[in-house]
């Protein structure tokens, strides 16, 4: 008798629909389960930030209820968008959907990744091949994509944005951008980027996650006049993050960093890091950070949240509790549950 290996089912934590709901107007992440709980937990701080009248509070309540409903439908609606895009969308740059080639990657990135897989590679050797933005905060930077690949990807993203295809929000804070798995760029672009290049790099920079970065969530965010211009303090729903500036021409919009799992209200004297087109910033997902207001132009960034199911299955990084698993589409939020093993019927005959 044979037994097939138990498949993994990807999940999200149930807290996704009640924790870390972002209220941009008041610059606040809240936990929301009921009107009474919201008043009790956040009444004073909301009033201090301008939520004063009954009308203000009712408007906030309506927005939170709508966001909870959106999150509850997210997996199913995202799968439907992906299917429609796959069947009906005609890319402007089909070449960016080809499997990732070395020619798309900056020579410095290729050299750092190659070193990371070489015998005897160590952290000190790798640090000679990239920029240490902050040794204390363990933030690093290096070129990732060539200028020509950034331009090709931007042309494709522009084309998709102007199409009549349905578009989902890239994350729970940004309103403008693209989910790369919906556009069909996960398999050809992001998965090989993670498996071939980021995993060995991150294993040296962040050895606590060596061999454990098994999924990702990748998206492009757009900042422009009349759209999103800045991003409030937050943590990423990730163990590690890569943030690459794709372009276009812009001023302002620098990233700023606080401490690891620091309360946003305690942020003082943050470290500011300017974006450089083609270059990627590497940091821990739990590092408090945000984006300063855009000055002029448009800024597009590719963000890859790298996740380790072996880590988050023990403790959800967003609610800091053992995750309450809910089955989800695709990689979900990187949590896994082992499905029951199946009997190999062929082995019985």
From TrEMBL:
Its cofactor is L-ascorbate. Keywords: Dioxygenase, Iron, Metal-binding, Oxidoreductase, Vitamin C. The keyword Membrane does not apply. It comes from the Eukaryota. Residues 214-308 form the Fe2OG dioxygenase domain. Coiled coil: none annotated. GO terms for molecular function: dioxygenase activity; iron ion binding; L-ascorbic acid binding; oxidoreductase activity, acting on paired donors, with incorporation or reduction of molecular oxygen. SMART domains: P4Hc (SM00702). The keyword ATP-binding does not apply. Gene3D superfamilies: q2cbj1_9rhob like domain. This is 2-oxoglutarate and iron-dependent oxygenase domain-containing protein 2. It comes from Delphinapterus leucas (Beluga whale). The lineage of its organism: Eukaryota, Metazoa, Chordata, Craniata, Vertebrata.
